[in-house]
Amino acid sequence: MPMYEAVELAIKKMQAAQTRLAEQLDLPAIEALIIVLEGLNHQNDDAFTQLNQENRKFVRQTLKESDFNALTPEQKRQVLQLVLVATMQEDQLQGNYQVTPDAIGMWVTFFVEAFLNPDQPSRVLDITAGSGNLLATVNLALQQRGDATTYYGVENDDTLITIASGVAALLGLDWQLDHQDALADTPDLTDQMDVVVADLPVGYYPQKLADGYQTEMTEGLTYVHHLLIEKVAQTLRPGGLGLLIVPAHLFESEQAPQLLKYFQSEDIYFQGFIQFSDKLFLDKKSSKALLMVQKPGADAVQAEPVMLAKAPDVGQKEENLNFVNQMQTWLSDNHLSH
Question: Per-residue pLDDT for the chain (338 aa), expressed as one digit of tens each?
Fold first, then answer.
């Protein structure tokens, strides 16, 4: 069976099982998906046992027919990603639940691969792991080239960390997942990470922090993505790199001066800001960019110049090739590639 047909079949069968579960158990699509992931992992969910025999048989048979286990790890990730995207749309979940698109994950992976030396063990953290798609994208790419990497994920949403755990198990990936608020104290992660990736949530952090964050506003609530940028710097080892997906209008908000002030401190190097094509987003207001920050120390230097660029559209082959070459030269010039 051709590759795309195998992927299509797996998606169709998983969604059929998911729909039956959602209808029979009166569940949101995302909770039905958790039962599907557990079924594929040969785990029995308590809710599953509430189905009558005929429906249990249908779900088991449909998941068997998906032939999910016959797919390659990358095909499995694509199937899980597409089913997740459809689920988010069906349940009309808020923006912070959305899955990181592959066109963005690809660029994050490019910079991670450039930065990490495959011959040395490394630690990679997704500080807002969500459903795990971004971490899986990076993990599978590094695994393919033989890196000895330990993977960590932090996520405060119960449902999302359950899905991330299921995704890791189905892809045969070993992640150390931590169910907690990334802005709460994470002493075991501090100063240890070679790379931190994240698709940062956007909005206000609902409380004041006791730690005295430099990005925190003196009055009112602070943007959570500003606080998380600072938290990322704390979790990086000296010289470690943060690759963070942030709003494209990061420097245009009323709180931007506070963030820019932090970028001028001795605690962080602001290395780059790469905007993605607006075509990747339904609404121009929700367009994203890749923020590159580095922790001072080791052989880190402030990039000269700071990389401010716009990534070409996915379909523009020649432009993308030129852009990659330009990035490789800049990374090399600024000690950001191994």
Answer: 667 799 999 999 999 999 999 999 999 999 999 999 999 998 877 888 899 999 999 999 999 999 999 999 999 999 999 999 999 888 888 777 778 888 899 999 999 999 999 999 999 999 999 999 999 999 999 999 999 999 999 999 999 999 999 999 999 999 999 999 999 766 677 789 999 999 999 999 998 887 789 999 999 999 999 999 999 999 999 999 999 999 999 999 999 999 999 999 999 999 999 999 888 777 777 789 999 999 999 999 999 999 999 999 878 889 999 999 999 999 999 999 98
CATH topology of domain 3-93: DNA polymerase; domain 1 (1.10.150)
Residue ranges per structural domain of the chain: 3-93, 101-333
Q: What is the dihedral of CA 277, 280, 283, 286, to 10 degrees?
A: -80
Q: In this structure, what token pair is assigned to residue 51?
A: 């189905």
The helix/strand/coil state of 167 is helix
pTM above 0.70, yes or no: yes
Could you please state the CATH topology (level 3) that the domain comprising 101-333 is classified under. Rossmann fold (3.40.50)
The two tokens of residue 208 are 């004041």
Of 175, 109, 174, nearest to 141 (Cα)? 109
